[in-house]
Amino acid sequence: MNLEASMKEAMNIEGAMGIAVIDYNSGMPLGTLTSVNDLDLDVVAAGTTDFVRAKMRTLELMRLDEPIEDILVTLVSQYHLIRPLTSRNGKGLFLYLMLDKARGNLALARHRLSRIERELEV
Description:
The protein is of the alpha+beta class. The chain is built from 3 helices and 5 strands. It has a 5-stranded antiparallel beta sheet, sandwiched between helices. The longest helix is centred in the middle third of the chain and has 21 residues, at 41-61. The radius of gyration is 14 Å and the shape is globular. It starts with a helix and ends with a helix.
């Protein structure tokens, strides 16, 4: 599945508000889609990249030799799900999904992002 198809698939997740595929080396999004008018996913990408880098450094300092499966940020009304890509051609990239907490299902969103990750060809 190509980048555009993957993002469209992610936006079909019930409650999806925005999706981005982000390069955590540069902080630049390779692609974004949103259903929220005033959501600037370029700004989100830059800030989230700092967060992902910090978490990866922390795990390194802890000498944990396990990849991050996903990172969850829970707000009152939203879930922010971050999933680093583990495929050979996806190294250095992560998926970022904003999910409406009232409409979305976190377990289903995690499952669908995992499948999208496996099928994504960058």
